Amino acid sequence: MTNYAVPSITLVKGKGSIVFDADGKEYIDMLGGIATNILGHSHPTVVAAVSKQIKTLSHVSNFYSHPKAIELAQILIGLTGDKESRVFFAQSGAEVNEAAIKLSRKTGRTRIVATTGSFHGRTMGSLSLTGQSSKRTPFLPLLKKVKHVPFGDIKKAKRAINSRTAMVIVEPIMGEAGVIVPPSDYLKELREACTAHGALLVIDAVQTGMGRTGQWFGHEYSGIQPDVITVAKGLGAGLPLAALIAVGKSSQLFEPGDHGSTFGGNPVTTAASVAAIKWIEKNKILAKCKADYKYIYSSLNAVPGVREVRGAGLLIGISLDKENSSLVAQKLQEKGVLVNAANPNTIRIAPALTIPRKELSIFVKAFKEVMSDVY
């Protein structure tokens, strides 16, 4: 299909944060499958968990339960801090954001508030939430009664939220838009506005979740408790797995038959997730992510041609003075470093949470060399 541009390279194998293309060239993977390979490639803990599980039980329909799905649901509930939380498993971020839309309809309301520049998926419902006209326009008409307000602008958000609002959905940090960080009190004030009007606050942690920001979901710094959290990408440690976590009273909105998924909560993918989360906890990876951000920030923020380094943990946007991020990304690839040009003036990196400091330093050196060449 022509929905993707023709890839410039074909990757055939990987170990940790190192990948190899079909010609045998080696690269440092600073994108991690877009914030997905949280333990890198071929991590022995994930390989062992998946191998053991697929030899035991490979798939179970949603007529039955199985131990790994139950264990993972219990872990995720524990991470919310609310024992009343409930979990629905799917395979992708778009699917669980679609599930959030359906959950919000159970409030009896239909209006939704989302943010301009946001990304919540490409299926028709999740695309209705996505605040990017370039992705939306070819597929109009989308869902009605979705209001987009500027990200980080609490005054406009408060004007949009009222007694007819079913839900407000927001990313703690906008990833695809270029790793945009909101004001420090933004989530807290959104929580207050939603509570005042009885609207659900949905945190889309698809990109910020599973430890990437140095916190499990990315909103915890604000002190709030969302009504719904959606996670995917890193949740499966490289395998297709997503979850909608309904917190508090919202956990009782769905009734039997309201929603479902054939492959959601698959034994193999949940086994990978459980193993990855336990490994992250055991090895104190959240603290490592915070330290890695400080290293990248201090190394690159003053580089000529860099406007700012922003983000949290290992979700980082490097804003450039010029709109030449594609050129920078291309030259980094030529030097054996894979990054993403999130927008014309922003380089996005989201490597494995396990990436060693040595490989980060190689990236820093290569980035400085490229910036010296193009500026």
Automatic annotation (TrEMBL):
Short name of one Pfam family: Aminotran_3
Glycoprotein among keywords: no
InterPro entries: AcOrn/SuccOrn_fam, Aminotrans_3, Class-III_PLP-dep_AT, PyrdxlP-dep_Trfase, PyrdxlP-dep_Trfase_major, PyrdxlP-dep_Trfase_small
GO cellular component, one term: mitochondrion
Keyword terms: Amino-acid biosynthesis, Aminotransferase, Pyridoxal phosphate, Transferase
CDD domains cross-referenced by the UniProt entry: OAT_like
Gene Ontology molecular function, alphabetical: identical protein binding; pyridoxal phosphate binding; transaminase activity
Cofactor: pyridoxal 5'-phosphate
Main location per the UniProt record: mitochondrion
GO biological process: L-arginine biosynthetic process
Entry keyword Glycoprotein: no
Location relative to the cell: Mitochondrion
Cross-referenced Gene3D superfamilies: Aspartate Aminotransferase, domain 1, Type I PLP-dependent aspartate aminotransferase-like (Major domain)
NCBIfam families attached to this UniProt entry: argD, PRK03244.1
PANTHER family with a match to the protein in the record: ACETYLORNITHINE AMINOTRANSFERASE, MITOCHONDRIAL (PTHR11986:SF79), AMINOTRANSFERASE CLASS III (PTHR11986)
Protein name stated in the entry: Acetylornithine/succinylornithine aminotransferase
